Amino acid sequence: MPESTHHTPDPVPAAARQAGRIVELLDILWEQARNDIPPPYVPVSQLRVMYIVEGEDRIRMRALTRLLSAAPPSVCRLVDRLQALGFIERLPCPDNGREVMLSVTGAGREHLARIRACRDELLIEALATMPFHQRTALTDVLAGLQDALVKTPMLLVGQDTGPAPKPHEAAESA
Question: Lower Cβ count inside 10 Å, N or C end of the chain?
Fold first, then answer.
């Protein structure tokens, strides 16, 4: 049931709960639509890696590890699987021979485009049932939420915020 923020002194918690519920519904919807997406099936954990690498092309493996709050060997296995599918490539780091940079391949971009097209279809179907003024307001609100999320410190991928977590620290937070 949608949560009202009209009579709440602080609507932030209500908005956060509502956004969380929408994310849960979208997770279910995406999982149900999984069979509509052409093979190969890419698990959510690997999709998350593809989204990050696509958004921050030529991201260092260390930065990806930090963003995922995962142990380096776990991230390496995710990248290995995506590389085996031809969706991600490892590149040498120009300023540090010991580091690796990641980039989404053309095939990876095509696969993400197919996934997004399928998801867009599902959302368009649902949004078409809403009145025009609500769709317009929703577009503005979602743009604002996206801006706020992009500014969240944990999502600032372009900035090097220090050393990668130690494997035991990353495993505790994963």
Answer: N
Flag whether 106 is in a domain.
Answer: yes
CATH code of the domain in which 97 resides: 1.10.10.10
- Evaluate whether residue 77 is within a structural domain: yes
Measured distance CA(49)–CA(56) in Å, rounded: 11
Range of the structural domain that residue 147 is part of: 36-173
Reading the block at residue 28, the tokens are 């279910």
Cα separation, 34 vs 67, in Å, equals 25
**Residues 19 and 141 sit within 8 Å (Cβ to Cβ):** no
Q: Are 64 and 57 in contact (CB under 8 A)?
A: no
pLDDT in tens, 9-63: 788 999 999 999 999 999 898 888 888 888 898 998 999 999 999 999 999 999 9
Number of domains in the chain: 1
Cβ atoms of 42 and 111 closer than 8 Å: yes
What number of other Cβ atoms are within 10 A of residue 1's Cβ?
5
User: H-helix or E-strand containing 103?
Assistant: strand 100-104
15 found inside a domain: no
More confident residue, 168 or 138: 138
Q: State residue 162's pLDDT score.
A: 44
